[in-house]
Amino acid sequence: MSQLSLLKGKAHKYGDNVDTDVIIPARYLTTISPEELAARVLEDLDPGFVNKVRPGDVLVAGENFGCGSSREHAPLAIKSAGVSCVVAKSFARIFFRNAINIGLPVLECPEIAEITETGDAIEVDVASGLVRNLTKKAEARTQPLPEFLRTLVTQGGLVNYVRARLGLSKQG
Question: Each residue of 21-57: pLDDT tens digit?
């Protein structure tokens, strides 16, 4: 059974249809360096994001988060910037899968945008599907991330999961 701890952090809220070109602009796709991608994440949507985000913070968004190109760079940039989880009304399917594949927890919670503002303290229980806004003392329930997907996230993504199953050393 996988264990994914309770995730707590400050909310950074964005709207609907945040696409992968805004998450990490195409001009930075010449690198796969997590550090370089983290330094540029969301710079066209929120130029000060990299200076505001702290390890453990949570991205909150509206509908269709991660639409657009099917690049793994987008969730990798978000995770590498220290974001612990993305909670949105809905995700583009390819972004959702890419996030799990690189070990970034994502949770669909239709009510999240209505109960959260940027700066609110958020607590996300990926295993139970409970999302709490600690600042506003509000909460929303949604479907939890299935156990197998929590296992992939806990292992650091699909590559690390497969490597562990094959008895190979973990890759960063």
Answer: 999 999 999 988 999 999 999 999 999 999 999 999 9
Q: What is the pLDDT of residues 81-116, one digit of tens each?
A: 999 999 999 999 999 999 999 999 999 999 988 999
What pTM, to 2 d.p., does this model score? 0.92
Residues 6+ apart with CB under 8 A from 14: 45, 46, 59, 60, 61, 62, 65
Sorted by where each begins, the domain ranges of the chain are 7-165
CATH 3.40.50.2000 fits 7-165, yes or no: no
Decide if 120 contacts 134 (C-beta within 8 A): yes
